[in-house]
Amino acid sequence: MNVSLRQLKVFMVVARSKNFSRAGAEIGLTQPAISRCINELEGQLGLRLVDRTTREVALTDAGVTLASSLDRVLDELEIALLQTHGAEARTSGRVRIGAAPTISATLMPRVLLTSQATYPDIALALVDQMQRAVLDSVRAGDVDFGIVVAPQGADDLTTEHLMSEPFCLVCRSDHPLAAQGAVHWSELSGENLVLLNQSSGSRVLIDRALTTQKVQGTITQELGHVSTIFRMVQEGLGVSVLPPLALPLPENSTLAVRPLLPAFERNIVLVRRKNRSLSPVAHTVWELIHRVVRERNKGFALAVDHQSAAPAAQVN
């Protein structure tokens, strides 16, 4: 049997994309070249791996079995080959990171700038997605790893704690609650609430805090973008509960930010596929993000001046 690594890699791209043209575009081969590789691989194995139609390809049972086995094998082989290059493999190459919007907007610019200054030969690609999409991208191997709010029911993934932050209230500066130094969750009862929608990793935590504190508010809007929430609150459509990473407020904003008591925190984690080692260069970036967060936390004064002596309630 004379199966080549090239044939196996082409097969895995076809298995993921379900289309010869898309597979070719991804790895820089023509459609006939992709088809030839698959035909050669099927000939060597004596098995039909894909069923072809005019629009897409579907894996046969044998194809599904091979794809599930190859995913981990090719990952480990690539890592082994990269490790033979030593330090160069750790400080050069391309790394794709998936991140939820508030993390992308506030934390990732600093990560990108620090990476450029420290490791100029590492090309970082940020994939800005909602939380669920980030987790799906990690599972599919479309990104090397992700940065999200600690997910629930993700036993197939490996997470590593990065940072924690308490939720805060955002309201108009002329709102009665803005006159207080801190606001108790119970004081949100009767308010119209403009919240992040269910695709946000923070929403389940906010809902849990509202329920725990017996808040009887009316959710008037559920939105995917923090900038839209700011505008809604500014127009007087309600108040919002947001994490500090959603700050700073827009320039020239007349909104106010106040700590919510007792403190309920969201945990931010790095997430990767379980039982899959990171490539040396991806591991370098993983550690770089930890350093950036540590440095940020040392010199960062939260926009919310959290003075409560009450212990934070972990809700992850």
TrEMBL record:
<dbReference type="GO" id="GO:0005829">
    <property type="term" value="C:cytosol"/>
</dbReference>
<keyword id="KW-0804">Transcription</keyword>
<comment type="similarity">
    <text>Belongs to the LysR transcriptional regulatory family.</text>
</comment>
<dbReference type="InterPro" id="IPR036388">
    <property type="entry name" value="WH-like_DNA-bd_sf"/>
</dbReference>
<dbReference type="InterPro" id="IPR036390">
    <property type="entry name" value="WH_DNA-bd_sf"/>
</dbReference>
<dbReference type="Pfam" id="PF00126">
    <property type="entry name" value="HTH_1"/>
</dbReference>
<dbReference type="GO" id="GO:0003700">
    <property type="term" value="F:DNA-binding transcription factor activity"/>
</dbReference>
<protein>
    <submittedName>
        <fullName>LysR family transcriptional regulator</fullName>
    </submittedName>
</protein>
<keyword id="KW-0805">Transcription regulation</keyword>
<dbReference type="InterPro" id="IPR000847">
    <property type="entry name" value="LysR_HTH_N"/>
</dbReference>
<dbReference type="InterPro" id="IPR050950">
    <property type="entry name" value="HTH-type_LysR_regulators"/>
</dbReference>
<dbReference type="GO" id="GO:0003677">
    <property type="term" value="F:DNA binding"/>
</dbReference>
<dbReference type="Pfam" id="PF03466">
    <property type="entry name" value="LysR_substrate"/>
</dbReference>
<feature type="domain" description="HTH lysR-type">
    <location>
        <begin position="1"/>
        <end position="60"/>
    </location>
</feature>
<keyword id="KW-0238">DNA-binding</keyword>
<dbReference type="InterPro" id="IPR005119">
    <property type="entry name" value="LysR_subst-bd"/>
</dbReference>
